[in-house]
Design goal:
The complex is a heterodimer of chains A (255) and B (145). Chain A is built from ten helices and three strands. Chain A is mainly alpha-helical. Chain A has two domains: 3-107, no CATH class; 115-253, no CATH class. In chain A, strands 1-2-3 form a three-stranded antiparallel sheet. The longest helix of chain A is centred in the last third of the chain and has 33 residues, at 221-253. Chain B has 145 residues and is an all-alpha fold. Chain B has one domain (2-144). Helices cover 86% and strands 0% of the residues of chain B. Chain B is built from five helices and no strands. The chains are: A mainly alpha (255), B mainly alpha (145).
Chain lengths: 255, 145
């Protein structure tokens, strides 16, 4: 039994899942399942939103091993969560060996969709939300253009890396101004409320809200609280950005 | 209404791409979201936005749990994109908008509505998670006896 590699597998699996924004109980569950395949006396896994710890101990080994891993980056990636889940399932049922599982986990991490597709998806999300909320053709078109603008702002901000709060304030201010400008110069009949609502949807903390609820209800109050706070801060930053944008277009165009 | 449901389908598809959903499950997630939004639209006249969010949330969570068991993948894969149409983005926006316009009362009403909707999403997730947990437990108990 190569328990050191097994530990590496558990830590790597936990790291990938936490970075992909999986629910905390799922991360601990997966790590525990992996560690339990060793049949050791003590197997512990502990995860919170910002880090994880795992321990293995047994009379058969000289020293217990404990590994701590700090998680600083978090970006939702559902594909990684699903892949790690499958690998851990196959490992615990014995379909694949420990080295195979380790190799498979190390192959994870590539993104599936090209940057361009994702930018296009942001524009498409804005346009579809205008449709979903009952907008007409003009609103859909305007929200699509505005969504493209949002993708550009996010792209530019990525190079400067000012943190998520500034990013959300800046991008929601830009899209509010963008919607106002389109109403003033291109589509006079435009319902800008619908367009702005549609375009902020890629930014709103839907993922954080859902994750916060599920973590809290599982009893993971640390992660649940952290994610609820994250959702609140994101909502606040968007509100500030929209407010700035509305004040700017209100002052420039409607006086 | 049909066009709004198509909008929901496309919105969830786009959300799934942004969230890096596995390619083969994108269409399923989009169906989960579109059905949920259809239920929301059907209920909104009778129940208002808060009640409709709860019913629609129940439908989305139930579908997510069923599909997650069918395809043997984590339930989040359908949850996160599926709930996108329900997230109170417009409530958030209207709160700020009315506040800027100086209509403090309307702003407060929208804020309350936004918080209620978020709470209803939570309640719907909680309800269905609990039901499926109980089902799983009873199956486990049956197997051990």
């Amino acid at each position: 039994m190569d328990y050191r590699t097994l530990m590496d597998i558990a830590i790597l699996a936990g790291k990938i899942m936490l970075e992909s924004n999986a629910e905390t109980y799922r991360v601990e569950d997966t790590m525990n399942h992996i560690l339990k395949t060793s049949k050791f006396e003590t197997t512990e896994a502990f995860a919170i939103a910002t880090g994880l710890v795992a321990t293995l101990d047994d009379p058969s080994i000289e020293d217990p091993i404990t590994v701590v891993k700090r998680i600083s980056l978090r970006d939702t990636n559902l594909n990684n969560i699903a892949t790690v889940n499958t690998i851990s399932r196959q490992l615990t049922t014995g379909e694949i060996t420990i080295p195979e599982a380790y190799d498979a986990l190390q192959d994870i991490g590539k993104v599936q969709y090209k940057r361009l597709y994702k930018d296009f998806a942001i524009a498409a999300l804005a346009a579809s939300f205008a449709l979903l909320l009952g907008g007409g053709l003009v609103e859909i078109l305007a929200a699509g253009i505005n969504g493209g603008l949002l993708a550009l702002v996010l792209k530019g901000e990525k190079k400067l890396d000012m943190g998520s709060f500034v990013r959300n304030v800046l991008s929601s201010a830009v899209i509010s101004v963008g919607a106002g400008l389109m109403q003033a110069f291109i589509f006079p009949t435009l319902n800008i409320n619908l367009v702005i609502t549609g375009t902020i949807m890629p930014l709103v903390p839907g993922t954080a809200i859902t994750n916060a609820i599920r973590d809290t209800l599982q009893g993971d109050y640390m992660s649940g609280g952290a994610k609820a706070l994250e959702a609140f801060v994101i909502a606040l930053s968007i509100a500030i950005g929209v407010a700035i944008g509305l004040v700017v277009i209100g002052g420039a165009l409607f006086d | 209404m049909i066009s709004q449901i198509i909008g929901a389908f496309l919105a969830v598809t786009a959300a799934a791409v942004i969230l890096e959903s596995p390619k083969k499950h994108i269409v399923t997630a989009a169906i989960v979201g579109a059905v949920g939004w259809a239920v929301y639209l059907l209920c909104i006249d009778a129940l208002g936005s808060v009640g409709a969010t709860y019913i629609s949330g129940l439908v989305i969570s139930t579908q997510s749990h069923i599909f997650s068991r069918m395809f043997k993948v984590p339930v989040t894969i359908f949850f996160l994109p599926g709930f996108f149409p329900l997230v109170p983005g417009s409530g958030m926006y209207l709160t700020v908008y009315e506040f800027i316009q100086g209509n403090t009362n309307l702003a407060q009403a929208h804020l309350q509505n936004t918080i209620q909707i978020a709470g209803m999403i939570a309640l719907a997730i909680f309800t269905v998670d609990t039901i499926f947990k109980v089902i799983k437990r009873t199956q486990q108990l049956k197997n051990t006896h």
